[in-house]
Write a structure and sequence with these properties.
The chain has helices at 3-7, 12-25, 54-71, 85-98, 141-152, 181-187, 199-210, 214-230, and strands spanning 29-35, 41-46, 77-80, 105-113, 119-123, 129-133, 156-165, 169-172, 175-180, 192-198. It is of the alpha/beta class. It has a 6-stranded mixed β-sheet with strand order 5-4-3-6-7-10, sandwiched between helices. Strands 1-2 form a two-stranded antiparallel sheet. Strands 8-9 form a two-stranded antiparallel ribbon. Helix 3 (54-71) crosses helix 4 (85-98).
């Protein structure tokens, strides 16, 4: 798929399928046996840090920007939480500007700087409705930290854009709970969430690839079983 194809208007399902295929081709979305932060053995793993060259990062930014515009979410600036969110937000801001929506961009440092301009925030002043851009959402912890930073600066944390919604139960104090991290951010923190793709989209992709391909059929069965055990509705 060419970059031009990604930037053309497409339906959300088509965009999601194209993104899943891209992530698999780039080796960012892998299948096997991986231990999650919650201690679960997952049959798939998504590592946005492996979008590790200019071409991959540019295409990733196109997918984010297209999904954000298609979502209809209104925002005044973008914010990238350290560390993975920094290159994501920066490149998405570039792509949004290329698409005709030029907005300010800021990010935070993990440790405050004691010289120069000082502080933990870099870039444009935080103001208005802020769109947080990150890779995935495991427990909502990063979102809460970003929300606190944004509110302390006098701006409004408004929405979060992520690459993949795993649609699985979050954990609290080591116990599974009925809601996912994305549902928690939407329902408890009051932020809109835009995901390029979801676990349901991943299963749809695997289901299409499984026809006549034994390896993909096995991945489909394992991911389906994982969702039946840990998945949430919606």
């Amino acid at each position: 798929m060419s970059n031009q194809e990604v930037t053309q208007p497409v339906d959300a399902a088509g965009l999601a399928q194209a993104f899943v295929a891209f992530a698999v081709e780039a080796g960012v979305l892998r299948f096997g046996e991986f231990k999650t932060k919650a201690g679960r053995m997952s049959p798939y793993f998504f590592n946005a840090g492996l979008f590790d060259d200019g071409a991959k990062l540019a295409r990733l930014a196109q997918f984010y920007a297209q999904a954000i515009v298609a979502s209809g979410i209104e925002f005044d600036m973008v914010f990238g939480p350290a560390y993975k969110g920094i290159p994501l937000a920066a490149t998405v801001a570039v792509e949004l500007a290329r698409m005709g929506k030029n907005v300010p961009f800021a990010y935070n440092r993990k440790e405050a700087k004691d010289h120069g301009e000082g502080g933990t925030l870099v870039g444009a002043p935080l103001q208005g409705r802020v769109l947080i851009i990150d890779d995935v959402m495991s427990a909502g912890t990063a979102a809460r930290e970003s929300i606190a930073l944004i509110q302390a600066a006098g701006a409004t944390p408004h929405a979060v854009a992520i690459a993949l919604d795993r649609q699985e139960m979050a954990t609290e104090n080591g116990q599974d709970v009925a809601h996912s991290a994305v549902q928690y951010v939407r329902q408890q923190l009051g932020l809109q969430v835009c995901a390029i793709a979801t676990l349901a989209d991943l299963l749809a992709y695997l289901g299409q690839q499984a026809d006549g391909e034994a390896t993909m059929a096995e991945h489909y069965q394992r991911v389906t079983a994982y969702r039946q055990r840990y998945g949430v509705a919606g």
